[in-house]
Every structure is written in structure tokens, then in C-alpha cells.
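Sequence only, no structure available. Ideas?
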Amino acid sequence: MQETFFEKFQRLYRSVKENILPDANLGESIRIIWDFLWEKLIYDVELIDYVQYRFYYKKRIERNRFVTHGKLLKIMKVCNDPKSRVFFDQKPLFNREFKDYLGRDWLDVKDCSKEIFYSFCKRNSVLFCKSPDGMFGKGIEFVRTADVNNLDLFYDRCKKDKLLLEEVLEQDGELAAFNSSAVNTLRLVTLICADDSVRIMAAVLRLSRKGKFADNFHHNGIASLIDIETGIVNTVGVDRKWNRYTVHPDSRKPIVGFQIPKWTEIIDTVKKAARVHPEVRYVGWDVTIKSNGEIVLIEGNPGADPDVTQVEDQIGKWPLYESLLNDIEKVKF
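Reply:
I predicted one. C-alpha cells follow.
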């Protein structure tokens, strides 16, 4: 059900109290609300942008540097063919298109026989089950085949829900040392420029928390920026509640200064993957390293949220994109 104007106003007021300035008096709260409404009206800034990029504390010149929701939509409009988005949004299609980069066994139950399903379950003692269009770590679960009492019923359920089953990856030991209950990933954002070169726009280390099965912000994950040239983590880790970490809070493994293993190979992998569908110029790739050293793709996101690349250092990345987008627009027409 769509929010009423009054409900939106209430949510905005709660955000002021919870996320922006908890000790704000009535006058300060009204001033913040008015400031946001001006940003929304004039600059197409969403509430989440205003909150997570701490706009209340920033001058206009600083705010202009951030890739806000409206600017993300511009990036997608200029860079990405909407007809090809399906290759990324539908996980079975993604696995088919990028099969050379997956490094894991997988099965689209929607299109398989019961015999093939049984064989897959026999090969894999633990299954990573994905909804075909799930986002933000939702629509996924782990299933131990030994715990399944009736494979026929499980098959029927998977087929009805059109689930994608995948082998559970065993990740690199250095990444697993942060937390082993989930695969820790890297987010690398690529852009195919007007001159057809592939540029790495941002790189992020994403770490899971103890007991969680995903590493993103929506599962209390921790994100840190990676220096693109060296592959060294160069900011503290930040979570969705603005907590900041120099070491992982569960394992105590240092975050700042961590050297990402096989950094050159990771860069090469995402640059090659970016050319599989060059009509989709802007993609955020989730990547990890297997225990045998193989670089694998988890997924690609053609609408990659810029939050994970700007929250950590509170520095807007729009200047990195603006001139490149102008050049792309010129070659498109």
C-alpha cells in the first residue's frame, strides 16, 4: 500500500531523530526537514541519500559530488541497454551467460528433470538455494540434503518456486578468516568508456558477521574501500548503523591495510566479464576467491547502488563519472 503524505512526513521525522541528529530540538528538526525537502525538490535527492551521506553536515558543493539516486538513474540510462538487464536480474540467465566465470556447480530446477535434480543433490551435501530475482540477500537459504526427509516434495517445492540451486563455495582462507559463516565478497564497479576501455570505478571489501549467510549491508555486513591501484583496504569498515571498525568485531582480524589476494587477477576477471554484454556498460560485480585460488563471479548488478562506494569515506564519486558519461552520450548518437 502506498504511503500517504502524512506517513512519509512521520518517517522523515523519525529519521531525523534516529539517524541524523538524535538530540535535535523542534526547531532543529524542522530545519533539517526543510533542508531535505529542498534537496528533494531541486536536486532529486532521496531520504536515504540525505541520511547515509550525512548531507545535513555538508555544504552544497560537497553534496553535488555524490552519486545520489537521481544520478544513478542517469548513469543507468546513459550506459545500460534496458533490454539486456534481464541477463543480470534473472539469476539462471546470469549463470548461463557468465558460465565461464562461475566456478561452481549449479542447477535451474525450473527446467530440469527429477533424475537430474537427484543427481545434483547427491553431488552436493549443502545447497545454496536462490530465488531467481531475489535482491539484497533476500530469497536465499542453505539446505543440507541430509536434512531433507522427502526429496520428491523438496523437488516439487523447488520447481514451484523456480529456485536456482548452487554448490556452496569454499572461500579463500584469508577471506574466511574474517568470518566463515558466509562467503565474503568484493564489489568492483566497471564502466565501459566511450573509447571502449573498461575502467574500474570503485572497489569494496564486503565482510559478513558471525552467523550471517550474506555479507551485504542488509545483513549487518561491513564495507571498506579498496585502493584500486594496489588492492589494499584503505578505509575503516562501516555498517548500516554507522559503526566503524578497524578490525572485524567478531574475529578481530585487521580490516584496514588488508591486502586483497590475487588483486591483478581479480581486475582482469571483471574487465573480461564486462565485455560479455558490452551494451551494459555500468555493472557492479560481486566477486570472491575460492580456496583453490580461482576468481569467481557471484553476480553482476547493472543498477549497482553507489552507497557502498561512498558511505565509508563520505566522499562523493560523481566527478569520476560526469565527464565519462558525457563522452558516452556523444558516441551513442
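The first helix runs from residue 5 to 20.
Hope that gets you unstuck.
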